[in-house]
Amino acid sequence: MRLTVAQALVRFLSVQFTERDGVRHRTVAGMWGIFGHGNVAGVGQALLEAGPEAMPFHQGRNEQAMVHAAVGYARMKHRLSTLACTTSIGPGATNLVTGAALATVNRVPVLLLPGDVFATRPADPVLQQLEVPWAYDVSVNDALRPVSRYFDRIWRPEMLPASLLQAMRVLTDPVDTGAVTLALPQDVQAEGHDWPDELFRERVWHVRRPLPDAAALAEGAALLRSARRPLIVAGGGVRHSEAAPALARFAAASGIPVAETQAGKGSLRWDHPQALGAIGHTGTAPADAAAREADVVLGVGTRWTDFTTASGSLFAPDARFVNLNAASFDGHKMAGLALVGDARAGLSALEAELADFRAPERTYGVDEWRARTDAVFGGGDDGPWPPSQGEVIGALDAVLGDRDVLINAAGSMPGDLHKLWRSRDPEQYHVEYGYSCMGYEIPAAIGVRLAAPDREVFALVGDGTYLMLPTEIVTAVQEGIPVNLVIVQNHGYASIGGLSAQVGAEGFATAYRFPGAGGDFTGAPLPVDLAANAASLGLEVFTPGSAPELRTALAAARTSPRPTAVYVETAPTRPAPPAEAWWDVPVAEISTRPATRTARTAYEAARPAPGARPRL
Ligand SMILES: Cc1ncc(C[n+]2csc(CCOP(=O)(O)OP(=O)(O)O)c2C)c(N)n1
Ligand SMILES: [Mg+2]
């Protein structure tokens, strides 16, 4: 069949399917794009030619945001389906880099199709081309290599078929997945070629659920059986593998308590008898206490990041680790015994191996923690105004339905949510903390809603985050996607402001204020009206002025058929409980400023001794 390269690409993508547990999904269910030279005549024309049935299209406003939307979508689909993103050459292409890194860090599949310079070089440099005098085959798209799990540049039509198959392999691989980039020189996109019919037959990519090796499984089960104070740490792999029911069963049967990382939060319902809640620097008192005294830790689908391990200080040096993970790389962390396999299959196998095992009964103060959470959530309709951030979270807890999704990524809210949120469904807690990227929230909300049209979606958006990437609001309005934003105004970076004060940087340039007399940003708050801004972009905006009005506004937003924003100014009163565990952010060793010197002294006193870290 004779088609252009771009037409062949779109046609191929429209007949790819992913299968797991007998259910089939379109592997690439749609495409986001912004057109410029580099894709307008190639992929743009091919989409027109193919029509929306073959490839649904979403008009993006910012290329980074398009990738975030694709990640939100793919995560909600348990990585069994994703979206592609097409861009022009140059700035449109490099705007993908942050989104690609986020996808790859979180191991979520996205297909990136940046336009590229001419392969035939009739008139270099073309508009927006960066020339590298000593490496003439380099373009700005090479910046996508380190943030992609698969990268290729289609210099000639003949290269396309094999590369497409590799791209699909990586998109559907539970371990290798992340951003997949096919850079498409613009002349090649428009070039005609004779393709084998075989390229366009339906293909099904089966997603494996491998069992860990039997000997390793037996050793892991024996270690857990020997434990006096075992603990399970549930990570993002539990969700990707849809292993939440298997985990709930195993925890209930074995009595082993469960703590959750950011990506793993919601693996257990908050009121499951074995649920201890969040672990690590943003953890709950019960989970961090259990981690400190654990003798055997079963990590399930976790990368063991610094927030989870409290920068390596949380677990006892002689604690033993068993890591059930699809990725051998993560399975071997913490000097652990690697059970390389699928989370759901592995948990069911462990449950069978440990059928007669019951962990010794221990209590970790869960009831006390629940009372502390209630206190932070505040007095409901009798609460003060303006509310604290915890009271806003409490209002959301009261208004959201069990299947609603709550999205966040950066600022002070991920920490508060990790500690406080009471997840009622494995899909409810959608916090992107692998890359913690300001600006993920709004486009991700669109992606999640596209993936799950039967769920209400709320994105918690800090004022700093809103200002960074509000652009996709317009896409939600255009397509009538009824996402709900909760814009939390605190006039700058509450999170980094707090961190700055702690590390002796005196809050420097972290508040959104006019310059003060000394030239720093300590003057009056800025006269910026984000509610008016959101309304001007087409959202239905609510501006509650009391605690009861906040709940009414959230409920009205929830049922509105339009995309909405609830705008709320918060007060830094009644904060969430302080950190139970360390996080290492080094403080300047040399300073003329007393605040920095005091912070350095405190840092040196608090910094755990090297011997306190687990074996690595
Ligand atoms: C793209 C990006 N740039 C910078 C940061 C570093 N950072 C983390 S939180 C934060 C401030 C967030 O401000 P806001 O959204 O208002 O939330 P708040 O801290 O006030 O809760 C910054 C700058 C980041 N996470 N992402
Ligand atoms: Mg803020």
CATH A-level architecture of the largest domain? 3-Layer(aba) Sandwich
Q: Kindly name the structural category.
A: alpha/beta
Low-confidence stretches: none
CATH topology of the largest domain: Rossmann fold
Rg from Cα: 25 Å
Strand arrangement, major sheet: 5-4-6-7-9-8
Would you identify the CATH H-level superfamily of the largest domain? Thiamin diphosphate (ThDP)-binding fold, Pyr/PP domains
Q: Beta fraction of the residues?
A: 15-25%
Bound molecules: thiamine diphosphate, magnesium ion
| Tally of contiguous helical segments | 24
What is the makeup of the main sheet?
A: 6 strands, parallel
| C-alpha termini separation | 56 Å
Q: Say how many strands there are.
A: 23
Describe the model:
The model has no long low-confidence stretch (mean pLDDT 97). The longest helix has 14 residues, at 63-76. The protein has 616 residues and is an alpha/beta fold. The protein folds into three domains: 2-206, 3-Layer(aba) Sandwich (Rossmann fold), CATH 3.40.50; 214-364, TPP-binding domain (Rossmann fold, 3-Layer(aba) Sandwich); 377-491 and 526-569, 3-Layer(aba) Sandwich (Rossmann fold), CATH 3.40.50.970. It binds thiamine diphosphate and magnesium ion. Magnesium ion binds at residues 411, 462-464, 490, 492-494.
